[in-house]
Hints:
The protein is globular, with a radius of gyration of 20 Å. It folds into two domains: 10-137, Phosphorylase Kinase, domain 1; 142-299, Transferase(Phosphotransferase) domain 1 (Transferase(Phosphotransferase), domain 1). β13 (186-190) and β14 (196-200) form a beta hairpin. It starts with a strand and ends with a helix. The strands form four sheets. A seven-stranded antiparallel beta sheet has the order 3-4-9-10-7-6-5, sandwiched between helices. The chain has nine helices and 15 strands. Helix content is 41%, strand content 22%. α7 (263-276) runs antiparallel to α8 (281-291). 36% of the residues are buried. The protein is of the alpha+beta class and 300 residues long.
Amino acid sequence: MLELDNSLRVVRGWSWWCFRWQLLRGGKDIAVVRDQEGVLRHKRCYAPAMIREAIRQHKDNVQQGRMLKDDHKRRASRIHAADGRTYIVKEYRNPLWPGCFSRDQQGWLGSNRLVGSAECFAWQRNADLTAAYLLFQDAGDGDLYMAHDLTLPVNEAVPLYRQAGQMLAGLHRQGIYHADTKPSNFVFSTSASGHHRLTVIDCDDIRVNICLSRQRRLKNLAQFIGCLWCLTEMPQRIAMARAFLQGYCALSRGTGSPSWLCPADQLKLAAACHKLYPEHWEENQRLLQKVFAPEEMQSS
C-alpha cells in the first residue's frame, strides 16, 4: 500500500526571505557555530556533537567503501546515530564556489524551502574548503531507479511511479522547477505494515517561477522517463512510464494541460530525452513509441 500524504510546497515571499536569513545567519530555530573546523549551521534540536559524530561516521564509510553515491562531485552514505535513527550524510567535494553559487549552500536552502522533501538538519563547510557536508533525514533505502528489474511487485511499483508523476505535477502547478527529477531522486521507505512512502530528494537546484515554461515541464518529464532504460524488460518500462505520465497528466488537468500529452508535446518529449540521454536514444525512442501508441492512449 502507498501513503499519499506527502504533499510538496515551497516557502514563499517575505516568509521565505526571513527564513533564508535564519538559515544563513542564524536565528530562532537555526544556530551557527564558527570554530577551527569551519562553519556549522544546524537546527537547534540537533546538537553539534551529534552532527560532528555523523560526519566522522561518514568519513569512516568513505574509507571502507560503504557509500550510497560516489562521484567526482559528491559522496553520500548512511550513518547510525546514538538516538537509534539513521541519517544520510551528503558530502560535497572541494566546494570552492562562493556561497550563493555553491551546491552545498543551494542544497541547504533548497531542502529547507521545499517542504515535504527530505529534511535537511545541518550544513557544515570546512575551513580549508576541502569539503562540505549536509545531514539529511533518511527517507528510505529504495528508489525508483530500479536497475535491471523491479525490486517490488508490479502492483506495488505502479502506484509509486504514478505518485512520482503526481508529485512532479504538484510542483509544476505551483511554478516550482526541480532541476533533477530522475527516478533515483524519488526515494521510498517501507513500514513494518507494508506501506510505502515516497519522498523527493536532491534539492540542490530549486527554482520558483510565477509561470513555469512548458519547456521546463517537458525537461522534467524527460529526466524521469529517459532513465527507465534501467529496467531490462520492455513491458516493465512501458507500465512504469504510463503510470508516471498518467499520474502527472491527471493532476495537471484544470491548468491548461490535456489529460494526455498532445502530439507536439510527445515530439518535444522525445527530443528532450535524446538531448539528455543520447547514448540511450534508441531504447527511449522505442519506449515512447510504445507508450504513445494509439491503443495505449485510448486505454488511458
